[in-house]
Each structure stands twice: as C-alpha cells, then as structure tokens.
Amino acid sequence: MNVWGTDGLAHFYNTEPMNDWPFKITKNTRITALCGAGISAESGVPTYRGSGGLWNEIEVQEIATSTGFLSNPERGWEFYHERRKNMGMCKPNPGHEALAKLEQDGYDIFIVTQNIDGLQQRAGSTKLIEIHGSLWKIKCSNARCKKESQRNTDVPIAKENLKCDICGSWMRPDVVFFQEMLNPSLMIEAETRTRESDLFFVIGTSGTVYPAAGFAQIAKALGVPVIEFNIEETLLSDFNDETVLGPSGETLPKFLEKHTGGEFKF
Ligand code: BJW
C-alpha cells in the first residue's frame, strides 16, 4: 500500500519485503536500529502500551517514577520481581537473532535499545546500548551515594540485598523511570551514531517516549533512510520512509536477506 503523508511525500506500508526499494545493504552500510518492546513481543515479553500492555495494569506514576517507587519500595519490588521472573523464562526470537547474526557476519549494525530485558545481548548482539537501563542491574536510590550499579539476576533478590550496604537506602532497579534523565554519555553515543548512519531502523516501538523517539526524527531530518518494522502504524510512521508491517521476527530476517541481495542468510 502506498500512502501520501502530510508532508506530501509517498509513504509505503508493506506487508511483504519491499521489491522496489533501491537500497542495497552492504558491509559498509552503517545501520542504526532503535528498538522497543515490540521486538521482544514474540518472545513473550509484554509491551507497555496497547492491548495487553503492561502500563494498562498498573498506575505508572506509582511504580515507574522515582517518587512513586520510593513511596512504597516493597510494592515496587514486587512488580519488578514478577517481571524478572517472567522475563527470565523468555528466550530471544528470530528478530533479535537476525540483528545479532548481522553483526556476527560483519555488517555494521549498532543497536540503541529501549528494552531492559537483555534479550538482544542474549541473542549475541554486542554493539548495543541500553538507553532505559536494565532489569538485571540494581543501584542505590540515593543519588549521592557512591555505590555503583551492579549486575544482579536473583529472583527474588534477597531482602538484605535490597538495602544499600554503604548508606542503607533502598536499592532500586537500574532502569530509567519517567522524568529521569537518560545517561548523558549514552545519549551522545546514540546521537553521534544516528548522525553517522546510512540507514536507520525503527523496530517495535510506539515512538511515544522521548528522547528515544527523537533519534528517528534526527535521522529523517538528516536524510538518512528510515525503515520501520511494526505490526501497526505508529506516531513515527509519518517520519519514516517505509513501514514494513508484520511481526519483526518474521519481517526483519526476510528484509535483511532481500536487501543484502541474498548475501546475508538467516
Ligand atoms: C510489535 C510487535 C511485533 C508489538 N513486532 N512490533 C511530553 C512530550 C514529550 C516528552 C514528555 C512529555 N511529557 C513527559 C515527557 C517526557 C517523558 C515522555 O516521553 N513521556 C511520554 C510518555 C509523553 N520521558 C521521560 O520522562 C524520559 N526522561 C526525560 O525526558 O527526562 C527529562 C525530564 C526531566 C524531568 C521532567 C520531565 C522530563 C524518561 C523515559 C523513561 C522511559 N522508561 C520506560 C520504563 C522503563 C522501566 C520499566 O520497564 O519498568 O521505558 S517507559 C516504557 O516506554 C519503557 C520503554 O522503553 C518505553 C518505550 O516503549 P516502547 O518500547 O515503544 O513500547 P510500547 O509498548 O509503547 O510499544 C510497543 C510497540 O511494539 C507498538 O508500536 C506495537 O505495535 C509494536 N509491536 N508486537 C513488531 N511482534
């Protein structure tokens, strides 16, 4: 389907790998992929928004903000322990694996993921930054405390480890809550890479959360081709050159095989 956007440019909504897209991906093509919860949906990880979305079930202000979480840390940890338990049972899917294999085959792919589940690293991607943190790291909730963020995969975390051993404050998941700044050095890395890209993928994100969604807009403004992979149109669809509709575990491998001229095989 070919749709004319408000900017007067043609926007393509495809359910099949594009036959007419002229771009050939080679090992010199610098690809950046902005990923969101949708890429993990086929692994069984719930998305945040839309039907079945995690945020429909909870009061976001009470859990996913610093003041909400610290107003009742036991309730907050109950929520995050449950997610650790569920996510720990999930496995990477073909969408994660296709991006990981692309890197392993020598293609220049860099991932800016909003996901905290660690599934892309488990699939084998290493050139990746987690801009919203990780469910598998914890840190002290006292910003002035010197304790460093640490990896912790316990489910549940033992009660004594939920208090900082330096200052006694509550530990919290090392994720980015609403109204919290994202790590500035990761922001610079993401923006620099976006600006240097030849091709930009937007995979499984609703594009509602900033500053993450802004990277797709930066890429577009710089004339970098932006290709979206999603099961439906999003707020970013009008900024994209193409939207490939369908589950990313199916569309991504096909797309990559097709647009490398068959050189990449999944
Ligand atoms: C598939 C699929 C399949 C399904 N295949 N696809 C007004 C305007 C602009 C900004 C703001 C504003 N008001 C407030 C803000 C700032 C705020 C923000 O953006 N809010 C918006 C909601 C409006 N941003 C922040 O607060 C950020 N910090 C910040 O801005 O600091 C400065 C500041 C300081 C002081 C005051 C205000 C600002 C921080 C954002 C942190 C986000 N944190 C979370 C939680 C992480 C921890 C946890 O998980 O518990 O990160 S929120 C949640 O959303 C999570 C995600 O990473 C993030 C993005 O969600 P994502 O990945 O896009 O998921 P969904 O569910 O939204 O979409 C899934 C998509 O997949 C859908 O499109 C499906 O169709 C698709 N899909 N199956 C392909 N098989």
Write a compact overview of the structure shown.
With 266 residues, this protein is of the alpha/beta class. The protein is built from 10 helices and 11 strands. It is elongated and about 60 Å long.
Walk me through the topology.
Elements: E1 2-4, E2 10-14, E3 30-35, H1 38-41, H2 54-57, H3 60-63, H4 66-71, H5 73-88, H6 94-104, E4 108-113, H7 119-123, E5 128-130, E6 133-140, E7 150-151, E8 171-175, H8 184-196, E9 199-203, H9 214-221, E10 226-230, E11 242-245, H10 248-259
The chain binds ligand BJW.
Ligand BJW binds next to helix 1 and strand 10.
Structural class: alpha/beta
| Poorly predicted runs of 5 or more residues | 1-12
Bound molecule kinds, no repeats: ligand BJW
At the fourth level of CATH, the homologous superfamily of the largest domain is TPP-binding domain
CATH topology of the largest domain: Rossmann fold
* Domains (count): 2
Element order, helices and strands?
EEEHHHHHHEHEEEEHEHEEH
Provide the β-strand percentage band.
15-25%
How many angstroms separate the termini?
A: 27 Å
CATH architecture identity of the largest domain: 3-Layer(aba) Sandwich
Number of strands: 11
